[in-house]
């Protein structure tokens, strides 16, 4: 169809279809909205666009139905104009004859008048409302023509209504008052006047038992009413309208029985809980559970991290619950205010900072590393997606107080995305590569509230608990298409605060089903890990190993451990520092002995082991230098009662584990004094790994042929049953 004008694209631009009915409109990435189609100064249709994230072709079908500009006037029974009136139109047929349709026009102006564009021949019923109060219900109207004029007379407010004047009230007209209509006054409707429906007239309201209402109230967090909030009502048939809350924060929507659809509030940059109410096949009116609360949350601050006073931020991969292989990075927000959030320029600069290591870092490379915890989380029926070596915490130097955000590539790498951006811009990025940010932008299609959330431990942001960490959880698909379990990627964070919704906030917003809250059913220890908050006088310990000749692990009195293999010791962390030291921090010690286990890397060599510990700010330290041979296991122990009783740290020079019979145990991989099933399982877990694989560990390649296989098992067996160890 040629010559159709399409309005509503960004920048209030208009485009016109060519002789073949084709059109082209430039839009910003992520734009979505409704456009209006007109031809010969008459509206011929509308079309809704979903978020646009790449070049797309969208065909719009319209049915040419002539429309007339219909004058409408609404007065009260004294003939005075009534402003602010909306007309809800209901017809048993849509313009294309496919079914029933509802729409809303208005409001009337100061003179009680406005002009509406109505399809020629339209027949149906009209309901008049003001401030969500019904003034006239289901007025039947005849077929609309070019000469039609709608005049409506509305009754006075019902007794007891706030708008009803009371005797003596200033608004009450007195005899002789100018506002009092007198017989014959022009403003007084007379019988038979077009504006006054008479008995039997087609405009007489008729009861409609098929209509029901949804009523709710919108308040702020202080329970104060919120007027002027727009409620967008969208049915599953695509028909939509907007209702505005009145001065008491109350809104009422009238729908037909069996209606299915959504109510979503909006006003400026405010955030509402829940984000929307969803209804399916309604059969009766709703007067409860339809309320909304305005949150104090500032949308623009959501997902923003702030570095602590030291500027040292630490992050680690806690759990991998998604089938994608993502990469996750952080980037400083310093200078990013020069770009509109969510714009192509903003996305390109954020990716550049992460990729170039310029005020940005890559924290997780899922294809190359594993998370600390494996197995299923909570009641999840999903499989175990975790694989690869655990890398521990990553130290990320930031300026004290510096603000930063995270960005995730759901199923790919920053390098891939960077290539797309350099070659053709964001429009070339496919969906599974499209960057997902921790930050949110009001009404933005991809930077959405709820993409990330925080799981805090006790006093995680309390200044008296500086060593406490917390978890940030991510959904690796765009909000609206996600499963709401918030375990696709779980990141451990220390040294920075974050402004983000909690699980309780997600459930309040309707984004996370309560049955998917895994906190109380966590059986793998994530909640125990982030709920450690030592008191000021708690005994703590820090073990560091200098030199690239060995790996380090620490086992607790209860058998829990922490190290390069991950671990289940609550609150304990493992990290590689920038100067290539391995550091294990235990923020809270139990009574008993802690076992330090060292496993040779490659050819081994010289190492320096340092142990620091104390209570609060009182610190003691001790160190040992030693040499470790290829494939060798060494151990040392620290006895906490001795530590406490003598206010000093005493530990042995690392040595080969010894069994009860005094014989050295070369293959006691966990240093517990026996070669048993646990040691065999550790070797079995490396089965089939080859040199070059991410998870290959040369320590277990005992015959040094570049592959961990049957021959390594034989190598151990031969020595287990011989006198040569």
Question: What's the short story on this structure?
Answer:
Residues 91-116, 142-223 are annotated as: Disordered. Residues 96-106 have a biased composition (Polar residues). The chain is mainly beta.
Please give a structural write-up:
The protein has 725 residues and is mostly beta strands. It has six domains: 5-49, no CATH class; 67-154, Immunoglobulin-like, CATH 2.60.40.1120; 211-295, Carboxypeptidase-like, regulatory domain (Immunoglobulin-like, Sandwich), CATH 2.60.40.1120; 299-530, no CATH class; 539-646; 685-720, no CATH class. The protein is 8% helix and 33% strand. The chain is built from seven helices and 40 strands. Strands 27-28-29-21-24-35-36-31-38-39 form a ten-stranded mixed β-sheet, with no helix packed on it. Strands 20, 22, 23, 25, 26 and 30 form a six-stranded antiparallel β-sheet that branches. It has a five-stranded antiparallel β-sheet with strand order 34-33-32-37-40. Strand 32 (550-555) and strand 33 (561-563) form a beta hairpin. Helix 1 (344-355) crosses helix 2 (414-423).
